[in-house]
Every structure is written in C-alpha cells, then in structure tokens.
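Sample entry (315 residues):
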Amino acid sequence: MNTNKSIPYLSEEMLSGLNISTTDVIHSIEKLIIGCEKKSAWSAPKAVILPEDGRYMMAALAAADDPPYLAVKTVILNPRNSEKNLPQINGLVTMLDSETGLPVAILDGNWITAVRTAGLSAVAAKHMARKDSTVAAFIGCGVQAKSHLRAFADMFPLEKVRVFGRGQANMDSLCELAESMSLKPTRCATGEEAIKGADLIVSSVTYSAGLVPFLDANCLKPGSFSAITDLGAPWDKEQFSAINRIVIDDLKQEASLPNKLAPSEYITGDLSGLVLGQFSGRESDSERTAFIFRGHALGDLALSALALQRSQDVS
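Predicted structure, serialized as tokens:
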C-alpha cells in the first residue's frame, strides 16, 4: 500500500529490466484464475468505444485479495499515430490497494499489454500445443510477434521461424530477433505460405476496420496450435470449423460483446475451464487447436502485480 503523496511510475524501461520469465507469467496468471474459482479474484468484461474515425478505446478491470490489488488498464489504438512516429497502441495500468482503494502504482501499459498477451497465449499453449513443436509462423511482425517469439522459445524446442507482415521494417526486426536466438527465419510472400506446415501460429495483425480476411484454417497442419491475438480479424471465421478445439479467454466477456471471436458452436470453452481441468486442451497429436482471444483483465492484473512486487524486491 502506498501512503506517500507520490505514486510510483514503472516505465517500459524499468519493466523490461525486471527479467520476468515466461514461467513466472504463466504461474501468476494461473494463480489468479484459480483465485476466481475460489471467489478471491474478480474481473469485469472489458469496455470498448469505437469512434467512427477508426480509433479503438478500451478499459479492462480486475481485482484480487491475493495479491491485494485492483488494476485498471486503459488503452487507445489509433492507426494515425504512425504519421506522428508514435506507437499505434498506447496505454496505462493504474493500481489501487483492493482493500482501501489507496493508489499503489502506475505502470506503462504498452509493456504490460505485450507481455501479458504472450503470457495468456503461453498459458493456453502449455495445455494445448504439442511439446515437440519446432516451427513457428508469425502473421504480423510487430510487438506482439516479438513477445510471443520470446515466450514460445522458452517453452518449445523451436528451430525455424516464418514471418509474414505488411511492414518490411517489422519483418526485418523479427527476423533479426530470431537470428539472435539461433533460430532460422524465413520471410514468406503470403500468409498461407507462412502457416502451412507450421507447428505454432501467432496472428497479431493490427486492428483495421477495412481488413479483409486472408487466412484459411484449412491450411493449418494437423497437430498445430494457433494463438490468435487479433480478434480473428485476418481469418475467415467460417473456416474455423477446420479447427478441432477452440478456446477463448472468457466466456462471460464474450457473451457481453459484439463482433464474436468465432461461431459459438466451434468454441470448446474458455481459459479458466482449461486451467481448471474442466476439459482437455488436446486429445490427440493430430488435433488442430487454437486460442482466440481479446485479452483478459486477469492477465493485466497478474502481470502488473508480479512486476510491482519484483520492482520492490530490487529497489
């Protein structure tokens, strides 16, 4: 609890220096999912505003008794930010003491979003992906692609990376990251070329109102796992029937929002059900599995609390 007049701010640079591992992130998210089951943690469906000029405005709320925090993340995505040499997505996480309501800290929301999103994918992949996955394909090569590459390289014996994106600079940067991790990158001419034969697929295409779907789930390799972080926008959702098992982040949140992630008849359950063992993430090596998600407020709280504790330990 912070009783001082000043509220600590954890910048992206500070957060990046905390050396939080993928295992740490998975553990913290799963702990809060279990806490929800025990009624000691809570989250609300995200609130979204969609102005007609193409901006995307979002707020997510979660709280817990252990760790004793409430976290609110607010984010704005504006495609026009690129014209100003700014990231398209910017945001903050505000943390309060969940008992007293006193302010605790403010954290850079861009870092939290990147690492928490990959963390949610990692939790799903832990239960749904084949352990012998060696080839990863990335549709979209920005911040999320890099955070997912780092997370999946921690979890799987990766050897090859395929990349497809709209920006040459981002593709080059992702390939350079792969090479620095002793992985072999391949630049692909189409999304289909990238995903065919891949064991792990990450789609993180930046939201755009005019985006035309260009990915077909029928092209996925039997036994593959897909982490679809972009609301499924680049995918032909009717072809999701080719995926044997689809998990989303939160059934309650999904029910409250328009623009469904996938047809309801294709959805097996949500991340909580997966972690709690209410259903299996994979029943055979040949199943195609996927995690399609908007982002879960519990993930923001889990990572923010972990980062805050780690920063206090090193200060």
